[in-house]
Known about the structure:
By secondary structure, the chain is α/β, with parallel strands linked by helices. It contains five helices and three strands; from the N terminus they run H-E-H-E-H-H-E-H.
Amino acid sequence: MQDRMWKMFDNFDAFIALPGGIGTLEENFQIAYWAQLNIHHKRIALLNVDGLFNKLLSFLDQAGEENFIPNSARQISISASTAQEMIDKLEDFVYEPDPVTAQIDCSKGSSSKKRKLDLSLHL
């Protein structure tokens, strides 16, 4: 699976998840996670045909509202109910990194130097 993911990663400018099963969701979350870690800044989209992903999107919204995931992580993926809406959103998408994860550089070829990351808890 990882070989296939890297081939897609190296050859595509955007990732679009069509309605599918567990493998589709796993790949979509993996690509979104890589974006959160600044491995890439490629566009990610879910084609939400007939509202298939509505509950998943609601879960992610709630996880962001309750601070289980940063709001920036929720904004990594675009969703649209039609192909044309999705294309329009992909064209308009502007990546805005999370201020904390922006300090992390996990990109291919990044230096192996250790960086200090502020992990202090602010309540």
